[in-house]
Write the structure tokens for this entry.
Amino acid sequence: MNTFAKVFVLSAVMLGLATPGLTAEGVSILGTWNCIDTRNGGEMRANVQIRKNRIFNARMYISMALDELHISAIADYKSRWRLDGNNWYETPINVRILKFEVNGIDQRGSTPAHALRDDLMRPQSGPDEIRLTSLTTLEFLHDGEVTVCQRDSDTSKNS
């Protein structure tokens, strides 16, 4: 697999984990969350909004290193969401790749950047399990990995 293919696969996996959702008994997931996931030599941070009108917005920040390449990306993602038990489903509405740099060089027009956008536009199901562990902490378990999200202190503006 060439280097750009590895970048795409890792980016897509990491971005796919930035899609939270679930209500625990008596506690709403609506609002703003800040999520962090680190694995495979990379980090994904996401600021997400889960709205009662079933719109999900996320700004995702990705940083990773593959061999001697440093990849940095920012993407805006919007979808419609629904819950089925503990499963989160979404239908993508729009994805914008705001930044996709390799070693500081703009690569937004590259095949991996376009592939990342195309992958994010495919309908996806969410994590295998979602746990709202407190009023302020949401955990996503996917393939044995955990992504942790903290509720933003001013979350009422998005509900």
In short: Confidence is low (pLDDT under 50) at residues 1-22. The first helix runs from residue 3 to 16. The helical segments are 3-16, 111-120. The first strand starts at residue 31 and ends at 39.
